[in-house]
Amino acid sequence: MILEEDMGVRLSLKQHARWAAIKSCAAGRSTAKAAAASLGLSVRQVRRLVKRARQVGVRCVVHGNCGRVSNRRLKPATASRVCALYHDRYDEFNLTHFREMLVEREGMRPPCREKIRRLLLAEGLWKRRRKAPKHRERRPRREREGEMLQIDASIHRWFGEERPTAALVGAIDDATGMVAGALFAQAETTHAYMTMLRAIVEKRGVPASIYCDHDSVFFVSKRKDREEAYDLGRPRETQFGRALRELGVRMIPASSPQAKGRVERLWGTFQDRLYHELRLEKITTVEDAHRYLPAFLVRHNRKFAVPAAKSEPAWREKPGPARSAGVFCLKESRTLSNDQTFSYEGRDWQVRRTPGVPPLPQRKIEVRLTLNNQVHAWLGDRRLRLALAPMTLRLIKPEPATPLAQMARAAAAYPRRAEIRL
After folding, report:
1. CATH second-level architecture of 149-304?
2. What are the C-alpha distances in Å from 402 to residues 187, 316, 406, 410, 414?
3. Short-list 266, 294, 310, CA closest to 172
4. How far apart are alpha carbons 252 and 242 in whole angstroms?
5. Which helix (H) or strand (E) holds 292?
6. pLDDT (tens digit, 9 = 90+) per residue, 211-264?
7. In angstroms, what CA-CA distances link 302 with 266, 299, 305, 315?
8. Is the dihedral of CA 16, 18, 20, 26 positive or negative?
């Protein structure tokens, strides 16, 4: 049985997932037990939803009270009286005091303070007031080196005001203030962050956690991208987030720039010291600046780094070269066609005969783009042999000519007579 979706119903991501599972179960493509396991519901509840889906369609996953007026809404007469009393008698009272007066002097059962505030705000009788600043305390450093890295990028005109901007991607250890790694790049990209993190991992080990902002390199920030990934069945994580998950590194999002103040202050120091040293060395390219950076970091760490509270570091064991290459890359899934080809980055690739691997028509494989821009294909833990597929000519059918186009073509083909001027 195929269920028709009601196009007038708007679903959230959670409701969309529930409807997809219920529709699949009602159509016989999956069992109630499998749908219950994927949705975290009981089999009994899934059967109830399937029965209701056959009656009302997609509305089975929408709460019955959705779109209805609440029975606990404030009556219009009460709302009008509250506004009139505030305007005529209790003007400039604070909201808590005004509510107390409604109870003591007017004998009313007024709504809560927040409801009164929204009501008066809508009528223009209340003005938004500036809240007192929150009491903030400095967060103590982590106790061990490698327990947390703060990572960020500084987009700045590093090579002079007349030169274009460049990105300096860096990571600072929270416990010691030591710059664990940094590199120059043309822009703040996933490739730059992965290259920097791989150098840190291969030199020192795997950190326990990473503190970062909400940049699109770390989190899928756009709602459209999240919903598109959900519809296609892809994980709602970025390539960098996937790499951290495979390494077992916890990613902590910062709620404000002040929260990761250590790395923000680092950029102020670099824009003061490193900027002038690059000018002194007459460095004007990203490549030259990247070669100069290691010597600068050694001097910077010697001057500004402090000992950790505990001497035992928190770096975990570094992965081997094969696992490191499998983590620090861009991964996507592709389905092979019947001729063992797939499309990636606008090019067709041919999977050649690989010893020990049978033909793979209509099989899903993993395509990896390494940090040095090489394309690899993997089936589980087996690497497949790849080659560029030969180009195929695609015939384009000519569009049927309109009468106007036929007239224009005939006029262009007919030779014009030379004009005779007297």
Report:
1. 2-Layer Sandwich (3.30)
2. 49, 70, 6, 12, 19
3. 266
4. 14
5. helix 286-304
6. 999 888 888 876 665 566 555 555 578 899 999 999 999 999 887 878 888 899
7. 14, 5, 6, 20
8. negative
CA distance readout (Å), 237 to 16, 32, 126: 19, 29, 43
Bridge partners, residue 253, by sequence:
212
Contact partners, residue 46, CB within 8 Å, separation at least 6: 21, 22, 25, 32, 35, 36, 39
Backbone angles phi, psi at 313, to 5 degrees: -75, 160
DSSP code, position 164: P
Distance CA 260, CA 140 (A): 12
364-370/329-335 β-pairing: antiparallel
- The domain segmentation of the chain, as residue ranges, is 13-61, 76-122, 149-304, 328-388
List the end-to-end C-alpha distance of the chain, in Å, as a whole number: 84
Instruction: Considering only the C-alpha atoms of the chain, give the largest distance between any 2 of them, rounded to a whole number of Å.
Output: 108
Kind of pairing, strands 347-351 and 386-388?
Answer: antiparallel
How far lies 202's CA from each of 41, 318, 414, in Å? 44, 6, 74
Model confidence over 265-318: pLDDT tens digits? 999 999 999 999 999 999 999 999 999 999 999 999 999 999 999 999 999 998
